[in-house]
């Protein structure tokens, strides 16, 4: 089904942020400060903190921005219909809320997933031999696809490096880019309107006609740096500056590059350029390392497992990726066993 054009959003735009981790909290704070009608889905200590003091963002220069009036609930139905639903949960958390997202839908509601790694919608509206194929590692029984139909989705890539310092307090390390793209590659009115909404809130957002190729470049880094950091406790700079781990990351990315070529994706940067970009971020802890330190389950499937599945699908050998996948899967199993 082709993406409906839809009118330009009225102001304020009704935006629901489902998941208030680092990226969700960053988006919610800036959009609320920009005057949009923001609501958030949160739980536990985070929900209590948002209701008490609002959301706080610490910018890279140390300045502090606070959005005190943000509607927050642990009941999606209580938040009502939205223009835009930003899905900023971890990928493995989506299935648990998928059947409740429909309470947020209006006729023209769009859903904007901002997960790391390969998305569950990768083959939706993608012409070719795998069009419409469901990735088993991400949505094995089709629950997500049933409740988030492809025609509602606008693809998004979250480039900022951010950390949640405490409930409802986000620190932005660097970056402001949130490029967008329709799954069918079209330049619809609705995607242009959403890009303008993000730009007004202080982000850099442009419309892409090849969202998957750009997404792959971001996922390239996640594939290599997230599991290596989780296994070693190292920051991006440390991984890139040690020759052995730099080469391991490069080899994993080279393997994934072959998969991309076989899927017909045109990648505009080299492996070395991608590694150099990560090194410039500096002493940043990846999201997977942050999860390890907090004792949380890891985002294994979208960051690594989906690449392994795509390698099998395209008959591409991926020995380095498979080895790291096995090790980080064991780490994840231990964390889940030890979690309260």
Structure commentary:
This protein is α/β, with parallel strands linked by helices and 340 residues long. The chain has 2 domains: 14-209, Rossmann fold (3-Layer(aba) Sandwich), CATH 3.40.50.720; 213-338, Orthogonal Bundle (N-(1-d-carboxylethyl)-l-norvaline Dehydrogenase, domain 2), CATH 1.10.1040. 44% of the residues lie in helices and 16% in strands. It has 13 helices and 11 strands. The chain has helices at 22-33, 44-53, 76-79, 94-98, 143-147, 189-200, 211-232, 236-241, 243-262, 271-281, 287-294, 300-313, 319-338; strands at 14-18, 37-41, 55-58, 64-67, 71-73, 82-87, 105-113, 154-156, 161-166, 169-174, 180-182. It has a 5-stranded parallel β-sheet. A 4-stranded mixed β-sheet has the order 4-3-10-9. A two-stranded antiparallel sheet has the order 8-11. Strand 9 and strand 10 form a beta hairpin. Residues 1-7 have low confidence and may be disordered.
Shape: globular
Q: Please tell me the total number of domains.
A: 2
Q: For the terminal residues, how far apart are their CA atoms? A: 43 Å
Reported for the largest beta sheet, the result is: 5 strands, parallel
State the helical fraction: 40-55%
CATH architecture descriptor text of the largest domain: 3-Layer(aba) Sandwich
Summarize, please.
By secondary structure, the protein is of the alpha/beta class. Helix content is 44%, strand content 16%. The chain has 13 helices and eleven strands.
